[in-house]
Amino acid sequence: MQSIWTEETIINMNRRRLLYEAPPVGDYLPDEFKQQARQAGTTQDSAEKRQKIGNMMQVMQNLPSIERANKSELEDLAVEALYRIYPALKQMVDDGRVEMDAKIVSSPGGRQTPQSIPSSELEKVKEKHPNFSALEKKRHFQNAQTQARAWIDGFTYVTNFMEEELDDINPQLYGQYRDFSKGISDFYWENADMLERMASTGAGRIAYCDVLPMEGGKVKIEARAPHFPLLLHELIKGAEYYKTAASLPKDKDLRKALVKSTDTHKHEIQNMNFGREVVNRMRGILSKRVKGYLPYMEIQISTQMDMLPEDKYNEFMDAIVNNDENGIIRFIVFAEKIVKQLRWE
């Protein structure tokens, strides 16, 4: 498993020139925010950091043999955990609108669709839609939150709430998953440049989740990962992608150009690293300053926020990442209206 993340692998991959790529989410963030995100996501003691990363890499090698006898149970448990976090998604599955397909596999591959857009195609779209750059910015903030929620809610849910269930399956599992979760953040921050270069080649990834349209308007959430914590992480990404899909432009050409320029493998690295700080700041505002707010309301607030016009959406996000008090107050007013609606239901 360790050989997946080496420079030699990068050199041997088939490289492909990106004709156009939207700026990463980091381009929309102030330097102070990025420094705080890195500090929050990394272990300050260098020896402790090396130990955490070393333990995580050892776990990646250990888990295939440890999980082998219980793969089916773990796949089912990952989907069950997803339904606890997103109960509305369970109702959609029961109603036949969504199909789940989650598997633990050693070589997930996946998502080989082209992730570049010819400049000529892009210029045509921009001429027709002058606000395209604002749409890109909105989509990047959405994707950053998708990756962050999958990281925070996925890995944290496993380590904080699933120890007893995992011990019932195999007492070896929980300690391995805990060590993986302790080291993965340091690994991503320390190797961000290498991981971005790997991702930009478009080669098969260590894990993925696709939201695929099917006949009759049905949707399949297909997740593949080499072990249980990553599988839950990918499933949450799928739930979030499905949630934000309704806010994509209705115009087919515009939607296609937007997704091609923003939903790229390379961007996922910054989205995971910086996105966690974005979500944590938003959650801090909601929990400390929004009257009547309860954690379950976050999904409804973020869903209604996704449906805002791109300029209004970006105004809220800029306020949150720049600590702009006037903008934050406007966001609080927006959130409190939704909280009141939910409390009346």
What does this structure look like?
By secondary structure, this protein is mainly alpha-helical. The chain has one domain. It has helices at residues 7-12, 31-41, 46-67, 71-85, 87-94, 119-128, 132-161, 163-169, 173-190, 192-200, 228-245, 252-262, 267-289, 298-306, 310-322, 325-344, and strands spanning 98-104, 208-213, 219-225. Strands 1-3-2 form a 3-stranded mixed β-sheet. The termini are far apart.
Estimate what percentage of residues fall within beta strands: 5-15%
Mean pLDDT: 89
Total domain modules: 1
Largest sheet: 3 strands, mixed
Radius of gyration using CA atoms only: 20 Å
The total of helices stands at: 16
Distance between the termini: 49 Å
Helix/sheet category: mainly alpha
What is the strand arrangement across the widest sheet? 1-3-2
Counted beta strands? 3
Topology:
Layout: H1 7-12, H2 31-41, H3 46-67, H4 71-85, H5 87-94, E1 98-104, H6 119-128, H7 132-161, H8 163-169, H9 173-190, H10 192-200, E2 208-213, E3 219-225, H11 228-245, H12 252-262, H13 267-289, H14 298-306, H15 310-322, H16 325-344
Parallel strand pairs: 1-3
Antiparallel strand pairs: 2-3
Helix pairs in contact: 2-13, 3-9, 4-5, 4-11, 7-9, 7-11, 7-12, 7-13, 7-15, 10-13, 15-16
